[in-house]
């Protein structure tokens, strides 16, 4: 299994508070992604990174920001959490030259 | 605007029979297609892929067929086993940005 660790695995937070989810990899893969999974929507890309300090928006990026200061870590921040951001968040990584992405175990976030 | 469509939310088959999961896409730029399997409370895992230069790729019990003119691909599982019961996601990528666009998923149930 690809070495991907997401933390925390579960979090409950209040509306309006900032939240940061962490994705850590030990594979030295260039590409890292944040997806959210919601019933009826499948997996939707939030942001992705194609290198240190190189990031770009996905299809549902509003309300989220990311940072990648080193190869192994990709942080997803909800600046001011809303109930619509209650979801399961997955981090994924892929190696240059291949499209197969490997996913972490997910973070279940509940905004109350 | 959904670029990857899995129109069947669920599919139920008997153990030992064939499972056929379908996927349609609208973006002509897509040139690489993947299937992922997801068990509850786990991250998606890569199953099989196909490049647009091929029309078939086989890996054990799993075969993916691609019909570019119809913008359609399908995943065949033969014979189906109860352990195959999971949500299956179709995904597609195009160009060199290594982003994957996912469908909404199909829940496969294989009955003993």
Description:
The complex is a heterodimer of chains A (112) and B (112). Chain A is an all-beta fold. Helices cover 0% and strands 58% of the residues of chain A. Chain B is mostly beta strands and 112 residues long. In chain B, the strands form two sheets. In chain B, strands 2, 4, 5, 9, 10 and 11 form a six-stranded mixed sheet that branches. The N and C termini of chain B lie far apart (38 Å). The model of chain B has no long low-confidence stretch (mean pLDDT 94). The chains are: A mainly beta (112), B mainly beta (112).
Order of helices and strands of chain B: EEEEEEEEEEE
Structural class of chain A: mainly beta
Oligomer: heterodimer
The coarse overall form of chain A would be: globular
Q: Ends of chain B: how far apart? A: 38 Å
Strand content of chain B: over 45%
Largest interface: A-B, 26 and 23 residues
Number of helices of chain A: 0
Element-level helix/strand string of chain A = EEEEEEEEEEE
The proportion of strand residues of chain A reads over 45%
How would you state the average pLDDT of chain A, rounded? Answer: 93
- Please give the number of β-strands of chain A: 11
Q: What's the total number of strands of chain B?
A: 11
SSE arrangement:
The complex is a heterodimer of chains A (112) and B (112).
Chain A: E1 4-7, E2 10-13, E3 19-25, E4 31-38, E5 42-51, E6 54-57, E7 64-70, E8 73-78, E9 87-94, E10 102-103, E11 107-111
Parallel strand pairs in A: 2-11
Antiparallel strand pairs in A: 1-3, 3-8, 4-5, 4-9, 5-6, 7-8, 9-10, 9-11
Chain B: E1 4-5, E2 10-14, E3 19-25, E4 30-38, E5 45-51, E6 56-59, E7 62-67, E8 72-77, E9 86-94, E10 101-102, E11 106-111
Parallel strand pairs in B: 2-11
Antiparallel strand pairs in B: 1-3, 3-8, 4-5, 4-9, 6-7, 7-8, 9-10, 9-11
Structural features:
heterodimer, A: 112 residues, mainly beta, seven-stranded mixed β-sheet, four-stranded antiparallel β-sheet, 11 strands, globular, B: 112 residues, six-stranded mixed β-sheet, five-stranded antiparallel β-sheet, 0% helix
């Amino acid at each position: 299994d690809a070495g991907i660790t997401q933390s925390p695995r579960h979090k409950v937070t209040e509306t309006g508070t900032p939240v940061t989810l962490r994705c850590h990899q030990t594979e030295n893969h260039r590409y890292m992604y944040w997806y959210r999974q919601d019933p009826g929507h499948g997996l939707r890309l939030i942001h992705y990174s194609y290198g240190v300090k190189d990031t770009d928006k996905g299809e549902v990026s509003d309300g989220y920001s990311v940072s990648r200061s080193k190869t192994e870590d990709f942080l997803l921040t909800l600046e001011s959490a809303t109930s619509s951001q209650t979801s399961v968040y997955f981090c994924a990584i892929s190696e240059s030259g291949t499209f197969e992405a490997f996913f972490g175990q997910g973070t279940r976030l509940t905004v109350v | 605007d959904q670029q990857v469509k899995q129109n069947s939310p669920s599919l139920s088959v008997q153990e030992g029979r064939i499972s056929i999961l379908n996927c349609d896409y609208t973006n002509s730029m897509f040139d690489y297609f993947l299937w992922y399997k997801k068990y509850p409370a786990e991250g998606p895992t890569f199953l099989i892929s196909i490049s647009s230069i091929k029309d078939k790729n086989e890996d054990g019990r799993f075969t993916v067929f691609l019909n570019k003119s119809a913008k359609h691909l399908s995943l065949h599982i033969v014979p189906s086993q109860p352990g195959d019961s999971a949500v299956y996601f179709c995904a597609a990528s195009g160009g060199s940005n290594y982003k994957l666009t996912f469908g909404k998923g199909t829940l496969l149930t294989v009955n003993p």
